[in-house]
């Protein structure tokens, strides 16, 4: 959750927490529409809304998380075949926030040329996008951080884009191994300056962690008429 403490006492404030969850619910109750997919950033106009990018290895569940958050099953295309999302896809949520589905990385069976194209496209986007408020770095809870994630972490530390790690597919692990994975990932994230201290645990399949993630994102959105 966004840091929800009582300003005077620094104690957790359940009323503020409820308000943050409600703000997230309201934002994501709005319509979410596909705006455009780009393979070349030249075609991309500067954004006038804050943007949140979903990044992570192929098959980690980026498109599925987007669908679960917005409650729209077929908004972003999901696939059993890694590497399905090849372009950067932009979705506009309630005219207040833009959600950006990045192509996945780290899939072994692609050519060097494809890896180079990914790196060029994504690094250009991450370096040059002033409207980019946060990157959600999705990590499969079964596998934890991999070297390809660490490459992206380095890139984000250098570009000083704020990012938050989100563990996905939590339904695939029992509570003990899941808690161990969370601790291990927190320990590693602590060494990175631009990392948000709170790691979120989610399952798109079972809708776990959606309300919390929506609350985090609502705090970054353009204020709505009820804020
Ligand atoms: N058990 C489980 N499976 C999931 C979950 N989220 C996604 N998956 C499955 O993981 C596979 C990949 O999901 P996608 O959402 O397409 O993954 P992606 O990260 O967008 O993949 P690329 O676009 O190839 O980078 C699909 O078979 C999904 O059904 C989850 O929370 N739990
Ligand atoms: Mg995808």
Rg (C-alpha, Å):
17 Å
Using the alpha-carbon principal axes, give the shape.
globular
Integer count of domains: 1
Helical stretch tally: 6
H and E string: HEEHEEHEHEHEH
Uncertain runs with pLDDT below 50, 5 residues or more?
Answer: none
Question: Strand percentage, roughly?
Answer: 15-25%
Number of strands: 7
For this structure, what is the CATH homologous superfamily?
Answer: P-loop containing nucleotide triphosphate hydrolases
Biggest β-sheet strands, sense, barrel: 7 strands, mixed
CATH class: Alpha Beta
Task: Tell me what the structure shows.
This protein is an alpha/beta fold and 227 residues long. The chain has a single domain, classed as 3-Layer(aba) Sandwich (Rossmann fold), CATH 3.40.50.300. Helix content is 35%, strand content 18%. The protein is built from 6 helices and 7 strands. The structure holds guanosine-5'-triphosphate and magnesium ion. The site of magnesium ion (MG) has 5 residues, from α2.
Provide a brief overview of the structure.
With 227 residues, the chain is an alpha/beta fold. It has helices at 14-29, 62-70, 112-128, 147-159, 175-189, 210-218, and strands spanning 32-38, 51-56, 88-93, 97-101, 132-140, 163-168, 200-201.
Could you name the key traits of this structure?
227 residues; alpha/beta; Rossmann fold; seven-stranded mixed sheet; 6 helices; 35% helix; globular; binds guanosine-5'-triphosphate; binds magnesium ion
Q: Helices, strands, pairings?
A:
Layout: H1 14-29, E1 32-38, E2 51-56, H2 62-70, E3 88-93, E4 97-101, H3 112-128, E5 132-140, H4 147-159, E6 163-168, H5 175-189, E7 200-201, H6 210-218
Parallel strand pairs: 2-4, 2-5, 5-6, 6-7
Antiparallel strand pairs: 1-3, 3-4
Helix pairs in contact: 1-6
This protein binds guanosine-5'-triphosphate and magnesium ion (MG).
Guanosine-5'-triphosphate (GTP) binds at residues 56, 58-64, 78-80, 82-85, 104, 168-169, 171-172, 203-205.
């Amino acid at each position: 959750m966004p840091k929800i403490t009582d300003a005077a006492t620094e104690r957790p404030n359940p009323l503020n927490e409820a308000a943050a969850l409600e703000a997230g619910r309201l934002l994501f109750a709005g319509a979410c529409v596909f705006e455009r997919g780009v393979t070349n950033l030249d075609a991309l106009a500067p954004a006038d809304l804050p943007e949140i990018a979903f990044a992570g290895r192929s098959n980690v569940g980026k498109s599925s998380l987007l669908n679960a958050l917005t409650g729209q099953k077929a908004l972003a295309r999901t696939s059993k075949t890694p590497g399905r999302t090849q372009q950067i896809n932009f979705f506009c949520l309630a005219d207040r926030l833009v959600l950006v589905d990045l192509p996945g990385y780290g899939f072994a069976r692609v050519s060097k040329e494809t890896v180079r194209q990914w790196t060029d496209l994504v690094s250009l986007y991450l370096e040059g996008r002033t409207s980019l408020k946060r990157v959600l770095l999705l990590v499969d809870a079964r596998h934890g951080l991999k070297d390809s994630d660490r490459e992206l972490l380095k890139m984000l530390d250098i570009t000083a884009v704020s990012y938050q790690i989100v563990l996905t597919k939590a339904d695939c692990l029992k509570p003990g191994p899941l808690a161990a994975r969370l601790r291990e990932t927190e320990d590693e994230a602590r060494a990175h300056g631009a990392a948000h201290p709170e790691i979120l645990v989610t399952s798109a399949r079972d809708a776990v962690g959606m309300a919390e993630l929506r609350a985090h994102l609502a705090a970054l959105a353009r204020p709505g008429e009820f804020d």
